């Protein structure tokens, strides 16, 4: 290692030590990891009147989120969207899907969380209309 590099390295160490002594330790850093700002949707249930399937979710984000009610179609495409809604920022939303006399199906509710860039899913529910 040349003399000029050793002198520069020693000078850098001295400057850093001086700065640490002057400024003190670094302040504690707040957790900057993103956090979810929507609630997972409620498990779909049959309405009290027995004519619709419903689920509820809350969007606590400052941007829009998307809320879906889905039904399992075993003979067709798998999960199929039966109802979709944009959720305004800071709102509670309920989806009501009219299912009158459609038989027994498995339903699931899903919300897109824009803060976490992922989906939150309710438990599946088997419902007879």
Attribute tags:
five-stranded antiparallel sheet, globular, 43% strand, alpha+beta, 129 residues, 8 strands, 1 helix, single chain, three-stranded antiparallel sheet, 16% helix
Mean pLDDT: 82
Which outline best applies?
globular
Distance between the termini: 82 Å
Unreliable runs: none
The secondary-structure class comes to alpha+beta
Sketch the topology as an H/E string, one letter per element. Answer: HEEEEEEEE
What is the helical fraction, as a range of percent? 10-25%
Query: Into which percentage range does the β-strand content fall?
Result: 35-45%
What characterizes the major β-sheet?
5 strands, antiparallel
Total count of helical runs of at least 4 residues: 1
Cα radius of gyration in angstroms: 27 Å
| DSSP, total strands | 8
Structural write-up:
There is one protein chain. It contains one helix and eight strands; from the N terminus they run αββββββββ. With 129 residues, the protein is of the alpha+beta class. Strands 3, 4, 6, 7 and 8 form a five-stranded antiparallel beta sheet that branches. Strands 1-2-5 form a three-stranded antiparallel beta sheet, with no helix packed on it. Strand 6 (104-113) and strand 7 (118-121) form a beta hairpin. The longest helix is centred in the first third of the chain and has 21 residues, at 3-23. It is globular. The mean pLDDT is 82.
